[in-house]
Write a structure and sequence with these properties.
Elements: E1 11-14, H1 17-28, E2 31-37, E3 43-50, E4 53-59, E5 84-86, H2 90-99, E6 103-110, E7 116-121, E8 127-131
Parallel strand pairs: 1-4, 5-8
Antiparallel strand pairs: 2-3, 3-4, 6-7, 7-8
Length: about 140
Amino acid sequence: MEQVGSVIIPTMRYKKALEAMEWLCKAFGFKKHFVLPGENDTIVHAQLSFGNAMIMLGSVNDDEYGKMFGTPEDLNGLNTQAPYIVVEEIDLHYKNAVAEGAEIVMDIRDEDYGGRGYSCRDREGHVWNFGSYDPWAEDN
């Protein structure tokens, strides 16, 4: 059986996961694949897709799994990982992210290794990288 989606799925925790999920869809173009809401406007588990890729997210909590995570706010703004997402129409994606209030930390530019990209922070400080460079493409 051929793999349909990505085999690596980043997971993230948000203090305001419901708001973050809505914003990620609006600003970056994610689509809700599955959402399990919790009490008091929390998210137990959500899956957001982007093409054949996916991220999982949930609300910050102190259960066994949640105790292993912090947020950028907990780490004085630092991130320990940042996804790179391949986007075909990178200039349009960039303009939409800016219009929705993404904090641009590395402005859009052509890269030496090919493609064009930018880096930004979401409302809770997670760093996101978007670019047109596709390392899987044969013509790179």
